[in-house]
TrEMBL record:
Keywords: Oxidoreductase
Pfam families in alphabetical order: adh_short (PF00106)
Top-rank taxon: Bacteria
Keyword Oxidoreductase: yes
Gene Ontology MF, one: oxidoreductase activity
Protein name listed in UniProt: Probable oxidoreductase
InterPro entries per the UniProt record, alphabetical: NAD(P)-bd_dom_sf, SDR_fam
Keyword Oxidoreductase in record: yes
Stated family: Belongs to the short-chain dehydrogenases/reductases (SDR) family.
Gene3D superfamilies per UniProt: NAD(P)-binding Rossmann-like Domain
Length: 325
């Protein structure tokens, strides 16, 4: 196991905002791609990166809404990308590669949480397909634009605590549980960063995953008021009731820190929270704090990479897979 999975002593913390992280940082000349960069944490990430001088491509399945949300943010362009549509993902990658631009930062942020059962492509479970597979394909197909120095950030969640990869039933063919499906997809995000970093180091590519914190965003669109009340997130009036929730600006901070700070630069493949490398969950007395070993196991990460590649090949995408072994 990776004994580097321990805090580095960052000067930032849970209350830090994305703007705090980038205070005094000059990203002029840098190019960032943020999936889902027009809503919730993604929008705050886009604002912070653009505010520090970066050019930002907001990759969104709803370009009209993305255009309205990002109007007036200098340096931002919007491109269509739906992680559920692999041919659309390939089209986005091809368009981006055709410009010859180097991507300095790729933030795989778009996702869904605890959705009703949906099936994607040839019948893949929707949360696994959208949260993991779409970003797996996007990142590997953008590889030529990432080589030579880039950071890839995979937005995971403390939700990974609820489920490792369910190798006996990844696609939930034997009964669907929306929270286990979400947890598995977030474990997949973390494991993807582990193996991606292992493969990418020789090309100057480093990868990190992270828990942004609990934040009220459109991610909760599939949850009822009763569910959020039962979880202690809101009160009967619908007002926030959990003081540990962050603002969207605070929630975006860890992704921005992992993408730009020199402090974690030589480490890679690690899971972060509160603008630092996270500790092991097994060493914490608090629930849903730190990272569980099943989300950082290199053997599991390599197995997931092989499985993901095989899924894409079986769906008829053989000619589109980049061999990074």
């Amino acid at each position: 196991m990776d004994d580097r999975q321990k805090p580095l002593g960052s000067t930032f913390g849970a209350q830090t905002t994305a703007s705090d992280v980038l205070a005094g940082v000059d990203l002029y000349g840098k190019l960032a791609v943020v999936t889902g960069g027009h809503s919730g944490l993604g929008l705050e990430t886009t604002r912070a990166l653009a505010g520090a001088g970066a050019r930002v491509i907001v990759a969104s399945r709803d370009c009209a809404s993305a255009g309205k949300a990002t109007a007036g943010i200098q340096g931002v362009t919007v491109e269509r990308l739906d992680p559920a549509d692999l041919y659309g993902v390939r089209s986005f990658a091809d368009r981006t590669l055709s410009t010859g631009a180097h991507i300095d930062i790729l933030i795989n942020n778009a996702g869904i949480m605890a959705s009703p059962e949906i099936r994607v492509g040839p019948g893949w479970e929707g949360q696994f397909a959208i949260n993991h597979l779409g970003h797996f394909a996007l990142t590997t197909w953008l590889w030529p634009a990432l080589e030579g120095g880039a950071r890839v950030i995979c937005v995971s969640s403390a939700g990974h605590h609820t489920s490792p990869i369910r190798w006996d039933d990844i696609q939930f063919q034997r009964g669907y549980d929306k929270w286990l499906a979400y947890g598995q997809s977030k474990t997949a995000n973390a494991l993807f960063a582990v193996h991606l970093d292992s493969l990418g180091q020789r090309s100057g590519i480093r990868a990190f995953s992270l828990h942004p914190g609990k934040i009220f965003t459109p991610l909760q669109r599939h949850l009822s008021q009763a569910e959020m009340m039962a979880a202690g997130w809101i009160d009967r009036a619908g007002s926030p009731a959990d003081p540990t929730f962050k603002t969207p600006q605070q929630g975006a901070a860890t992704a921005v820190w992992a993408a730009t700070s020199p402090q974690p630069g030589g480490h890679g493949g690690l899971y972060c929270e509160d603008c630092d490398v996270a500790a092991r969950a097994e060493a914490s007395a608090e629930p849903f704090v730190g990272v569980r070993r099943h989300a950082t196991d290199p053997a599991e990460a390599e197995r997931l990479w092989s499985y993901s590649t095989a899924l894409l090949a079986a769906s008829g995408m053989e000619g589109l897979i980049v061999d990074l072994k």
